[in-house]
Design brief:
single chain; alpha+beta; five-stranded mixed beta sheet; 23% strand; globular
Amino acid sequence: MKDKTLTRPPRSVASRPQVVQTAGGFELAGLHAPQFRGVDLADQCRAAFEEAISLLEPHDLTLRDVSRIVCHIADADEFPASFPVFRQFFPATSPGMTMMWLKDAPSSAPKIMVDLIISLPEEEDMGVAAGF
């Protein structure tokens, strides 16, 4: 009998991330600097957010719409250097943030990869609220 377990092929860092509509909003996963070799973590983070802006725009979304950020980082000691970058791109909003330290990340991988989650508010059913 064949194993029917579904497996997801590994994501290549060379592939361009896409905005995907989900049941609760949108997700943009796997953002990273297009050129990351020899580039410090803060500049890689900046390049990822600049790419996010261009990918969100066709969907009429901006970084102000982001409700959660998930950062996959290779070096936890370098992560604080990215804080000014987060303040630059999120000056008026404070999305929730999760940091995942990829302790054994290969040196050929980006120092930071970012996932952005945009949760859309659920539409209220006004008909249900009218039955006092």
